[in-house]
Amino acid sequence: QVQLVESGGGLVQAGVSLRLSCAASGRTFSSYAMGWFRQAPGKEREFVAAINRSSGTYYADSVKGRFTISRDNAKNTVYLQMNSLKPEDTAVYYCAAKSAPRYSGGFYLDGHQYDYWGQGTQVTVSS
User: What pLDDT digit, counting tens, does each position of 4-58 carry?
Assistant: First the structure.
């Protein structure tokens, strides 16, 4: 069982930056591929960013160039640096973990592929 706890959300103005953190329990964080998803009110869960075990990254077109996903295996933490925030970025942001083979260089873009989820952190961007 893996527990994930997101933090760093808040209310910010459009154009500013915010960094989300996701702290994972356990001793095998480095064996997981990680992802960030978001869900706005009345909308479906949406893929945001993914990072594999080798720290390769992949982004949704809507956030590419603005968001950066990274991981610090020594701290069992994955981050989402969000720059140039827009009102349409407003959502609850969730981190997720999926056990992945070491040789895997691919990415998991479907939330149903993930094994564990955090409780979410609210990000609200005002205009």
Answer: 999 999 999 999 999 999 999 988 899 999 999 999 999 999 999 999 999 999 9
Mean pLDDT of the chain: 95
Give one word for 46, left, alpha or beta, with left for phi > 0 and alpha for psi -120 to 50.
beta
Measuring CA to CA, how many Å separate 60 from each of 1, 5, 63?
28, 22, 6
Q: How far is CA 30 from the centre of its chain?
A: 15
- The tokens for 15 are 């154009």
Q: Which residue has the tokens 């997720």?
A: 96
Q: Decide the pairing of beta strands 121-126 and 91-99.
A: antiparallel
At 65 the three-state DSSP class reads: coil
Asked whether residue 104 carries a pLDDT value surpassing 80, the answer given is no
φ, ψ at 37 (rounded to 5°): -130, 165
Q: Sorting pLDDT into bands at 50, 70 and 90, what band is 102? A: confident
CA 24, 37, 9, 121 torsion: positive or negative?
Answer: negative
